[in-house]
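ok new one. same drill as before - structure tokens go in, u give me an amino acid for every spot. 422 of them this time. try not to just spam alanines like last time pls lmao
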């Protein structure tokens, strides 16, 4: 069955309208508040008082301008009677010069760098300052710098007397990341043409939903299960409508992918409860217990949330491939029976199943390579490895996601055939 010119023009017009409407949704979250991580310094005493009410950090008073009053992390030695309020700014800076000093053995540090910096961003932009960068021999935390480097710095500005303390926190890495991202977007458009543009739109909307809806909702204490399922459904709908338009194959893929992801999440949550997974296997999860918002998280549900999002992309890919295959076979031969259409979808699904299952397993395994090397180096027995909370969590995550992916194939095939009226 061929599509005539009028139908093609209608489909293109429908695609354009869908892209326009969904692109507008990307603009809705913009301007709702300051960028995450940005700290705005109070300009007056009244603003400083308001800032205090919103949770400014307080430390016992010390000599805010002297190095002797501070430890290496920028804290203040206790013992004062009053409290000092400070605001932390995170800015970019350029290293103008570095003077190195080799300390005496009793100082227990490898090297001390006196670093002259030009601040490149924020309210202190253009100012020249110095800080001490200590290299202790702990390669995980130390940050050696050279002249010409661009670095991230933390500036602790003390509101009472205007003094501030500066320390180097990391290298500036975002420039090359932005270039890589730009290359990725150009590649999508160059190879995919209109489909590439649609892909960029869906990526933008997906990121907006995650960073402007999902994460703030979780931080505010909403149920991770409810909010993540809702976001997953919206991402499904938006992606398929933009990529394929308002068509039966899109609806079949939407339903199949949604059910597959939910199955993966429910399975992971159920098995995780039976094997007593805590959801606290990673350092970051434990740190959430001490955030200033005081949110009481259900860490098992957060684990469920991560599994849903982790499996979503692969499941959506499989669902669309199966649905598209059935749609194409039906277009080529509208007289085929349901069994034949279902078989065509399953054939494509089986071909994809192996590679996509590997994708999920390898994605989860790849992030654990250093840990696996430690186990191998110390010849840790399998029973000792598999029963660790961290490893058990990753295994449940991998298997549940893969099971959801595999079940998506027949579910989508049945729905796609059913929507054809067979």
């Amino acid at each position: 069955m061929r599509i005539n010119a009028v139908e093609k023009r209608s489909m293109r017009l429908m695609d354009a309208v869908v892209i326009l409407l969904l692109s507008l949704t990307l603009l809705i979250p913009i301007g709702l508040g300051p960028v995450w991580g940005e700290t705005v310094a109070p300009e007056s005493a009244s603003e400083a008082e308001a800032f205090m009410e919103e949770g400014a950090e307080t430390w016992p008073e010390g000599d805010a301008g002297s190095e002797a009053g501070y430890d290496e992390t920028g804290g203040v030695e206790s013992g004062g009677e009053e409290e000092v309020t400070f605001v932390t700014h995170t800015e970019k800076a350029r290293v103008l010069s570095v003077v190195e000093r080799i300390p005496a053995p009793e100082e227990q540090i490898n090297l001390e760098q006196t670093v002259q910096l030009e601040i490149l961003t924020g309210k202190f932009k253009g100012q020249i300052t110095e800080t001490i960068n200590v290299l202790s021999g702990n390669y995980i935390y130390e940050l050696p710098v050279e002249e010409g480097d661009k670095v991230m710095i933390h500036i602790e500005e003390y509101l009472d007397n205007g003094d501030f303390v500066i320390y180097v926190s990391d290298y500036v890495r975002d420039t090359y990341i932005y270039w890589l991202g730009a290359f990725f977007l150009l590649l999508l458009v160059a190879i995919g043409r209109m489909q590439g543009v649609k892909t960029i739109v869906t990526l933008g909307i997906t990121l907006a939903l995650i960073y402007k809806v999902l994460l703030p909702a979780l931080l505010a204490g909403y149920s991770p299960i409810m909010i993540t399922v809702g976001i997953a459904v919206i991402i499904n709908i938006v992606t398929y409508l933009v990529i394929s338009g308002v068509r039966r194959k899109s609806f079949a893929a939407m339903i199949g992918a949604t059910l597959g992801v939910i199955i993966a999440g429910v399975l992971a949550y159920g098995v995780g409860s039976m094997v007593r997974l805590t959801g606290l296997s990673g350092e970051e999860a434990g740190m959430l217990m001490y955030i200033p918002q005081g949110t009481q998280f259900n860490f098992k549900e957060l684990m469920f949330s991560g599994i849903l999002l982790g499996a979503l992309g692969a499941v959506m890919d499989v669902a669309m491939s199966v649905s598209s295959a059935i749609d194409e076979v039906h277009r080529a031969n509208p007289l085929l029976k349901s069994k034949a259409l279902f078989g065509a979808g399953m054939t494509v699904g089986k071909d994809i199943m192996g590679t996509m299952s590997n994708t999920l397993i390898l994605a989860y395994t790849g992030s654990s390579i250093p840990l696996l090397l430690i186990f191998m180096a110390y010849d840790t027995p399998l029973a000792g490895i598999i029963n660790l909370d961290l490893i058990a969590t990753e295994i449940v995550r991998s298997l549940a996601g893969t099971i959801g992916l595999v079940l998506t194939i027949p579910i989508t095939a049945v729905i796609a055939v059913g929507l054809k009226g067979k």
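The chain has two domains: 5-32+193-419, 45-172. and btw Strands lie at 57-60, 83-101, 111-119, 128-135, 150-158, 164-171.
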